[in-house]
Amino acid sequence: MDDRSGPDGSRRARSRARDWERLAPYVLVAPAVLIIVGLRLYPLLLGVNFSFTGDGDRNGEAVGLDNYLALFDDPLFQQALRNVGLLVVLLPVAVAVPGLLATFIYLRVPGHRFFRSVYFFPAVLSPVIVGAIFNLLLAFDGPLNTVLGSVGVGPVDWLGDPDVAMFMVVGVHVWATFGMGLVVFLAGFATLDAALLDAARVDGASLRQVIRHVIIPGLTRTIQFVFVTTMIGMLTSMFGLLYVMTSGGPEGSTYLPEYYIWIQQGQMNRPALASAASTILFLIMLVVGLLQLSILRRTGRED
Question: Which residues form the ABC transmembrane type-1 domain (predicted)?
Answer without folding.
Answer: 81-292
